Automatic annotation (TrEMBL):
Alphabetized UniProt keyword annotations: ATP synthesis, Cell inner membrane, Cell membrane, CF(1), Coiled coil, Hydrogen ion transport, Ion transport, Membrane, Transport
This protein's encoding gene: atpG
The family this protein is said to belong to: Belongs to the ATPase gamma chain family.
GO BP terms in the entry: proton motive force-driven plasma membrane ATP synthesis
Record's subunit section: F-type ATPases have 2 components, CF(1) - the catalytic core - and CF(0) - the membrane proton channel. CF(1) has five subunits: alpha(3), beta(3), gamma(1), delta(1), epsilon(1). CF(0) has three main subunits: a, b and c.
Molecular-function GO terms, alphabetical: ATP binding; proton-transporting ATP synthase activity, rotational mechanism
A GO cellular-component term linked to this record: proton-transporting ATP synthase complex
Domain of life, source organism: Bacteria
Coiled coil spans: 243-277
Source organism phylogeny: Bacteria, Pseudomonadati, Campylobacterota, Epsilonproteobacteria, Campylobacterales
Keyword Coiled coil: yes
Name of the featured protein: ATP synthase gamma chain
Subcellular location: Cell membrane; Membrane
Amino acid sequence: MANLKEIKLKINSVKNTQKTTKAMKLVSSAKLTRTRQLSEQSRSYAAKINEVLSDIATRVSKVQDEGNIGRAFVQNENPKTVDIVFVTADKGLCGGFNMSTIKTVSKLISEYESKGVKVRLRAAGRKGVDFFSFQGQAIEQKAIELSSAPDYDKAASFIHDVVEDFKNEVTDKVIIVYNGFLNMLSQEIRVKELLPIGLEKVEISETTSMLNIEPDDDDEVLKELTDKYIDFNMYYALIDSLAAEHSARMQAMESASKNAKEKVNSLTVEYNKARQAAITTELIEIISGVEALK
C-alpha cells in the first residue's frame, strides 16, 4: 500500500488543481456574460445589414443587363481556388472546442482537393495555426491574438487581403468556418460562404423598400455596403467564436473540478485505509512485544 505521506501529497496536489479549475470556471463565466451580450447585439446588426444588402442588390439587378450586379453576387458552382478562413482559440483547456473547427476545415480541404480545387488557408487563432503548421499545411495568412480579443478594425484588416484576392479573380470562393455559440451548454460549427454573397430570398418592391436613395447612387451604396457586410461578418465570427470558447472552457473547467473532487474522495479513502493498516500493524507489534516479555 502507498506511503501515507505520498498519498497526502497527492491529495493536496489535486485540491490545488481543483482550486485552479474552479477559478478558471468563474473567470470564463464572467467573460461569457459580457461576450454573449455583444454577440447577441452583433447578431441583430448582422441580420439587418444582410436585409439592407439584399434590398439594394435586388434593385440594382433589376436595372442592369441580365441582373449582373458584380462578381461578389455571382454564384460559382465550379471554383478553381477557394480561400477557407477559420477561427480557433489562442488557448486550450476548452474541451473539444478547437478540434471541432479543425476537423471541419480538414474535411472541407479533402472535399475540395478531391475535386481538383486548390485550397488556401487563412487562420485566426494560435491553435489552428499550430495544428496545420505541424501537419505541414501551408497557411496563406495567420493572425494570433485576434480571436482572443476581437476588434472591428483588426478584423477588417485581416479580411481585406481575402476580399482583394477575390475581386482580382485570384480566388473564386471564400468560406468562413468557426465554432459558434448556441447556448450555455453547447456550441455549433458554422460554415458560411462569405463570397460570393448569397442574397436572402426577400420580396422587394418599390413602395416597400426600406431605403430612400436615388437610383444612380445604388451602385455606390451597394459597393460600400458590401464591404461593410464582409468586414462585419468577419468581426461577428470572432465575437461568436469567443463566446463559444468561454462557454466550452466553463464546461471543461466544471468537469475538471468534478473529476478533481472525485479523485480527492478516492485518495482520501485510500489514505484512511493506509492509516488504519498502519495503526493495526503498530498494535500487532505492541501486542507481540508484550507477549514476548511474559
